[in-house]
Design goal:
The protein has one helix spanning 14-19; strands at 30-32, 37-40, 45-50, 53-54, 62-63. With 68 residues, it is mostly beta strands.
Amino acid sequence: MTEPAAGESPKVDPKLLEILVCPVTRQPLKYDAAAQELISEAAGLAYPIRDGIPIMLQDEARALSVEE
């Protein structure tokens, strides 16, 4: 992983994103680079990415709103 520029979020390894699935539904995730989250539409959850590391714990996930 390369170091991000000042004010920029760390990048997540694209190969990692290919193999990660939602721990609740085992369905693929969508990467939201702007929000630094991995979105599980099937579970209605958004898993945070902190310092370039996906936090794949249901207790750490944010519930998606109806608009999302």
